[in-house]
Amino acid sequence: MSRLDIHKTYKLYIGGKFPRTESGRYFPITDKKANVIANMCLASRKDFRNAVVVARNSQNAWASTSALNKGQILYRIAEMLEGRKEQFIKEIENQGSTRKRAIKEVEAAIDRLVYYAGWSDKYQQIFSAVNPVSSAHFNFSAPEPMGVVSIIAPEEHGLLGLVSAVAPALVGGNTVVVLASGTLPLCSISFAEVLHSSDVPAGVVNILTGDKKELIPHMASHMDVNAIIYCGKDADEIKKISQLSSNNLKRNIFYKKTDWFNEHTQSPYFIEKTQEIKTTWHPTKI
Amino acid sequence: MTKISDKNIFTASWSYDKALESTDHVYIKDQYELFVNGDFIKPVEGKYFNTVNPATNKVISRVAEASAADVDMAVMAAKKAFKKWSALSGKERGKYIFRIARLIQERAKEFAVIESLDGGKPIRESRDIDIPLAANHFFYYAGWADKLSYAFPNRKPSPVGVAGQIIPWNFPLLMAAWKLAPALATGNTVVLKPAETTPLTALKLAEIIKESGIPDGVVNIITGAGQTGAALVEHPYIDKIAFTGSTAVGKFIKNAIAGTSKRLTLELGGKGANIIFEDAAIDQAVEGIVNAIFFNQGHVCCAGSRLFVQESVADLVIDKLKQRMNSLMVGDPLDKNTDIGAINSKKQLETIESYIRIGKDEGGEIYQPKCKVPKEGNWCPPTLFLNVSQSHRIVQEEIFGPVLAIQTFRTIDEVIEKANNTPFGLSAGVWTDKGAKIFHLTQKLNAGVVWANTFNKFDATSPFGGYKESGFGREGGLHGLKPYVKFD
Questions:
Q1: Predicted confidence (pLDDT) at residue A248 exceeds the cutoff of 80
Q2: How do residues B21-49 score in pLDDT, each as one tens digit?
Q3: Which of A41, B127, B164, B278 has the greatest CB tally within 10 Å of its CB?
Q4: Candidates B129, B136, B253, B254, partner chain A, best to mutate (most A CBs within 10 A)
Q5: pTM for the whole thing?
Q6: Which residues contact B416 (CB under 8 A, 6 or more apart)?
């Protein structure tokens, strides 16, 4: 007697919980043969706003977590992902990839997490400066996280793209609200399960699945979001994000690349993109 | 108890004689043209506007108003010059910039006087701060020109192209230096537009730039108002825009260039928190408060315009502050005794006065010392408001004048919360004798520049710029190179 498979219900990831979209809407994801694999949540503006609230509330504590600890948490994510490799490979295959490519993507995603885990307590040293001012002051400039960051993950590579966009913002002490790939969304929610079991505090990473057209305007215009990362090439979307984010001078970061396997898609400069530089002056004369 | 303010401890029984800076050595033309492609040319439409001395409201000179056609000529000149300038070795580029620094130093006195005449700031400030710092900026970035490969580990920087730079009227020459020096050092060419109320030192700088022998078209300086700025922002051959000014205009620019490949850095408004703890050296802190808000008539984007005093020392601090305000001298910018000069323009004076009215209407308790000011000109006495809270407009909005809003606090967490409760994030100050408290605060305050036991200090090596709606990008120091380079 054959056993009936248990299918996973894919939900959203907000504030360390897995709620369904408050809107009750869904969109189906199909395999190559047009069989429905999953009904994904079609997240709403309200879901996004809820996610920003929890991201904001968890940002200070995450930024204050020691660099060493943040690095270990990122490394922990890599460990958890490694342990569940097979699940992710299958999901990527289900969404139309070859097994070979799927393996390559999952392994690259794990390695990328390890890469950024290692930067956690080093990028500050690369981007800081002690400034030799002419007056009797000790003066230094160092990076600080921008705060809450909206991320529109790459459409390509549902797992690797998402990890490549999220990890540098995360290791830099930002909290994020991510809109996953619309066509390859399965891994994003499974990745949320990995985050959930990796000591990432609730609310630090929030993942939504849904429609870019619908959500981008809210992600770009929300007044309590400090920066927005858009991965993609759509000129209209880029323009819209630039316009809408001028209302609170949200920082805009556009990654137009499509190949996230490339070695140029990881560097401490990706971390720097979501950092502000703070300069501190302190007298030295008594 | 006798309040300190009842005793006039700072007031002497004698009064100061005027100590006027001489204007003999200063040469100002009756009319200034546009500096385009190494020449001083008349504007296409033949329009000029007057620049006035805000201390007398008398016309100093006539200045060309650049139309879109003039802007186009300037941008095309910069575009044409870019190829050779960017290909020139860093060493040679640097030499031109060193020359500019030296030429400013040689003519520093003249620049200082013109800055005070045209903008209204006290001669002490233009002489000791604006002009030397401007020269230092050129000197600092000149040295970077042939060392850029050390600035960005594992990256090869190249210049962006033609930079359109728009600067404000509060530190006219200094802002020109902040914009020009890093742009030139990194191999960009520039079209710079000074503010319409303070164009003279930038035009004097144009003479120096010509004198330096820098190739034609590398630096173009065009004068005009908002329309000129808009034409510059919209010009298709501008690759990078650097703007210093109001948050409203900054937002407008960001929106206007959306969808283009133009890069943007913005240095905008602020509402800096200045925080005095009970364990601070109180007399020093009072001087710090004065410097934070009354420096340059409060026309400072990073001014400490929100004062937070710990409740236990609030009465004492406010009392001493009022007393100190009584002794501030408001008047002729060219008088070396002057602490607070002229408000930069009639329009700005109206803005400040309207905020003072708003403060009173919303229930704030105002204090202004009685001071004698000249009959002509734009003057505003140092002003403070008590009895205001976070929701008052004079606490939330940038006034850009000598107006201080004072609130009190009890705990550290409370003051951090209050200080960060603003859309701005440019500057903050902390006064305490305890080191750990300083760094706890400087880490928690959301601002690009944080001063401990000091305020309004600037240096060419020190990056400056804002968080949140105070803009993005840094000027000064190593970090100030980044807005002007791209990576392969």
A1: yes
A2: 999 989 999 999 999 999 999 999 999 99
A3: B164
A4: B254
A5: 0.96
A6: B441, B444, B445
pLDDT of residue A257: 86
Are residues A77 and A193 in contact, defined by beta-carbon separation less than 8 angstroms?
A: no
Contacts of B136 in chain A (CB under 8 A): 134
Domains contained in chain A, CATH given: 26-283 (3.40.605.10)
How long a stretch of residues is chain A?
286
Q: Look at chain B and count its residues.
A: 488
- Residue A163 — left, alpha, or beta (φ > 0 → left; ψ -120 to 50 → alpha)? alpha
What residue ranges of chain B are covered by domains with CATH 3.40.605.10? 31-268+467-487
Asked whether the predicted pLDDT for residue B404 surpasses 90, the reply is yes
- d(CA B280, CA B239) in angstroms, rounded, equals 47
Residues of chain B with CATH 3.40.309.10: 270-452
Contacting A residues, span 263-282, partner chain B, CB-CB under 8 Å: 267, 269, 276-282
Sign of CA dihedral A282, B302, B113, B338: negative
Residues of B with catalytic function? 267, 301
What average pLDDT does range A230-253 have in this prediction?
98
Residue B247 has pLDDT above 60, yes or no: yes
Kindly write down the DSSP assignment for every residue of B46-78, as one continuous string. Answer: --EEEEEETTTTEEEEEEE---HHHHHHHHHHH
- CATH classification code of B270-452: 3.40.309.10
**CATH top class, domain B31-268+467-487:** alpha beta
Put simply, the answer to whether A134 touches B459 (Cβ < 8 Å) is yes
